[in-house]
C-alpha cells in the first residue's frame, strides 16, 4: 500500500527504534541484552525462555518481543514473589512511600524514552504516549501523598498481586496499578502483554526494582502461564484487564478458588442522542473520541440516534470525522520538526487491521450502509513503508445482527450507528452488550436525562460528555458482564488489595452480591 502524501516525509531525528533500544541498554543494562529483554524474578534479571519475534505496528520493522516462559518457570517466579511479599508487607509505610516516590522520580527522568517505546511498540502518537506515562506518574503520586488514611486499619493481602493486562496502556493502567499495590504493602507480579509494550514495561520495572520495590516481571503465553499467575495458591489477588472471553476463563478460576479479584472486561459503550440540539458540542467531541484509534476499553464505538434527528446528527458528525489526522507517529517534513499532531496511528498489528477490514466488508455485504470511509491520500507515511497495520476510519449505519460490529466492541476506528424511534428502543440499543464501563446520553432536557439515566447499564454515565477510566479519586468499574470483582479508583483500589474487617464486603460486582460504592 503506497503512501500518497504530497510532501516526502522523513523520520524525526533521534527517534528510531535503534535509538530507543540503545538508550534502554544504557539506562538499564541489567534488564536489556543486545537483542532481547529479560524477565525479573527472585530479585534477578534472567534470560529465561525463547524471545519471540515481534514487529512494530508503525512500519512493520523488527523490534524486541517478549520471552516465552514455560509454566514451571512461572511457578518458580510466583514462589519467589511470595517470599518477597512476606518481607515487604512488614516494611514500614514511610519506607514504602519513599521507595515508590523514588521510582516516580526515575520514571519522570526517563519519561521521553518510555513514551518513545510506546510509539514503536503499540503505535501511540507522541501526545498520547506522553500522556500514558504522565498519567501513571501523576496518579501514583496522588496515592503516595494520601495513602495513610486509605490503609488505616487495613493489612496487605496474604500473597502477591498478579497483574495480567492488555497491551494498550502499559503505563497508566498496568504500572500505575502495580505501584499502588506495592505502596499498599503487596509484592506485585506483572505478565508482559503479548501483543506489545514489553520494552516499555521492562524499563519501568527496572527503575522500580532499583528502588527496592518488590516487582516480578514474566512473559509468555497466557494459557501456559495461567496456572501459575491465576490459580497458584501463593497469589493473593488477580487483577485482569482484557476481553470477555479470556476474562470469563479467569473469572471461573478465581471463583472456584475464592480468590480476591479485579477483572475489567470490555462492553459495547454507547452514546445516545435523544431530543438534542447542541450539535456544535457534538462536532467538537467527535475527533477526541477517535484518540488512539478507539483502542480503549472506554471508547465509544456505537451511536444510538433518534431517527428524527439523524439528518442533523450527520451534519454535525461527518465534518468532524473528516478532520481526523492519521499516520506514522514519527514522520515529519524535516528531521528536527516537532512530533506530528495525530489522532491515531496504526492499530496494534496487521492481523487486527485485516480483521477490522474484513468485518467492515462483511457488514456492508449484508446490508450496513457506509456513511464515511477515510482516504489513504489523507494519511501521513514515510516513502515505501509497510502500512499493513493502518486502518482508515469507517462509519457504518445499521450493522446487521449477524456482524460482530453489531454486538461487540471493535477495538479500532470503526463507528456504528443505529436509529431508534422510542425511548424503549433507545434504552434497548444502549444496553446491547449486557453491561458496559461507560455510556453517554445527549439530551437537552434534564428531566429526560434524570429519568433515563438509571436504566442505562454502564458504571459511568455522562450527559453530553464522554466518560473515561479517570484518575486519582475517580472510581472505576463496570456493570453486567463488563466487570467482575472489586471496583477500583481512588481509595477503592487500595481497599481491593488490602484486608479490612473480617465481614467486609468490598464494592464490586461479585457472583454472590453487587455493591455500589
Automatic annotation (TrEMBL):
InterPro entries: Ald_DH/histidinol_DH, Ald_DH_C, Ald_DH_N, Aldehyde_DH_dom. The keyword Oxidoreductase applies. It holds the Pfam family Aldedh. Transmembrane segments: none annotated. Residues 49-491 form the Aldehyde dehydrogenase domain. Keywords: Oxidoreductase. Coiled coil: none annotated. GO terms for molecular function: oxidoreductase activity, acting on the aldehyde or oxo group of donors, NAD or NADP as acceptor. This is Aldehyde dehydrogenase family protein.
Amino acid at each position: 500500500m503506497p503512501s500518497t502524501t504530497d510532501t516526502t516525509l522523513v523520520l524525526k531525528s533521534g527517534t528510531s527504534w535503534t535509538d530507543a533500544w540503545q538508550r534502554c541498554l544504557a539506562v538499564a543494562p541489567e534488564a536489556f541484552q543486545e537483542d532481547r529483554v529479560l524477565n525479573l524474578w527472585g530479585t534477578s534479571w534472567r534470560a529465561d525462555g525463547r524471545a519471540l519475534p515481534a514487529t512494530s505496528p508503525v512500519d512493520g520493522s523488527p523490534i524486541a518481543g517478549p520471552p516465552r516462559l514455560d509454566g514451571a518457570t512461572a511457578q518458580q517466579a510466583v514462589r519467589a514473589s511470595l517470599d518477597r511479599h512476606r518481607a515487604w508487607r512488614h516494611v514500614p509505610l514511610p519506607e514504602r512511600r519513599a521507595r515508590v516516590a523514588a521510582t516516580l522520580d526515575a520514571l519522570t527522568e526517563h519519561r521521553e524514552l518510555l513514551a518513545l517505546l510506546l510509539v514503536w511498540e503499540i503505535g501511540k502518537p507522541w501526545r498520547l504516549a506522553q500522556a500514558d506515562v504522565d498519567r501513571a506518574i501523576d496518579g501514583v503520586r496522588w496515592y503516595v501523598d494520601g495513602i495513610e488514611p486509605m490503609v488505616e486499619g487495613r493489612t496487605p493481602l496474604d500473597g502477591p498481586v498478579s497483574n495480567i493486562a492488555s497491551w494498550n496502556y502499559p503505563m497508566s493502567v498496568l504500572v500505575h496499578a502495580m505501584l499502588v499495590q506495592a505502596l499498599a504493602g503487596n509484592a506485585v507480579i506483572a505478565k508482559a502483554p503479548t501483543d506489545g509494550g514489553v520494552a516499555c514495561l521492562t524499563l519501568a520495572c527496572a527503575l522500580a526494582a532499583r528502588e527496592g520495590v518488590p516487582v516480578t516481571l514474566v512473559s509468555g503465553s497466557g494459557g501456559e502461564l495461567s496456572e501459575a499467575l491465576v490459580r497458584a495458591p501463593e497469589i493473593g489477588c488477580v487483577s485482569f484487564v482484557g476481553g470477555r472471553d479470556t476474562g470469563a476463563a479467569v473469572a471461573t478460576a478465581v471463583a472456584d478458588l475464592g480468590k480476591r479479584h479485579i477483572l475489567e472486561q470490555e462492553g459495547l459503550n454507547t452514546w445516545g442522542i435523544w431530543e438534542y440540539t447542541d450539535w456544535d458540542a457534538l462536532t467538537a467531541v467527535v475527533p477526541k473520541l477517535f484518540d488512539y484509534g478507539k483502542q480503549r476499553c472506554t471508547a465509544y464505538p456505537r451511536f444510538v440516534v433518534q431517527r428524527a434527528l439523524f439528518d442533523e446528527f450527520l451534519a454535525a458528525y461527518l465534518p468532524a470525522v473528516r478532520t481526523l489526522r492519521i499516520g506514522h507517529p514519527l514522520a515529519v517534513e524535516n528531521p528536527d520538526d516537532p512530533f506530528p499532531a495525530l489522532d491515531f496511528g496504526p492499530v496494534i498489528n496487521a492481523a487486527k487491521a485485516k480483521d477490522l477490514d474484513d468485518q467492515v466488508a462483511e457488514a456492508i455485504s449484508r446490508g450496513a450502509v457506509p456513511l464515511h470511509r477515510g482516504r489513504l491520500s489523507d494519511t501521513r507515511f514515510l516513502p515505501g513503508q509497510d502500512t499493513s497495520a493502518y486502518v482508515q476510519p469507517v462509519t457504518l449505519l445499521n450493522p446487521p445482527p449477524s456482524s460482530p460490529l453489531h454486538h461487540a466492541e471493535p477495538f479500532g476506528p470503526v463507528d456504528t450507528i443505529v436509529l431508534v424511534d422510542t425511548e424503549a428502543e433507545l434504552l434497548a440499543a444502549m444496553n446491547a452488550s449486557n453491561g458496559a464501563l461507560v455510556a453517554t446520553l445527549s439530551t437537552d432536557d434534564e428531566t429526560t436525562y434524570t429519568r433515563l439515566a438509571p436504566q442505562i447499564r454502564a458504571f459511568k454515565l455522562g450527559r453530553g460528555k464522554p466518560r473515561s477510566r479517570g484518575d486519582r479519586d475517580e472510581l472505576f468499574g463496570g456493570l453486567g458482564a463488563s466487570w467482575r470483582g472489586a471496583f477500583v479508583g481512588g481509595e477503592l483500589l487500595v481497599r481491593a488489595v488490602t484486608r479490612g474487617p473480617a465481614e467486609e464486603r468490598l464494592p464490586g460486582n461479585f457472583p454472590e452480591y453487587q455493591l455500589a460504592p
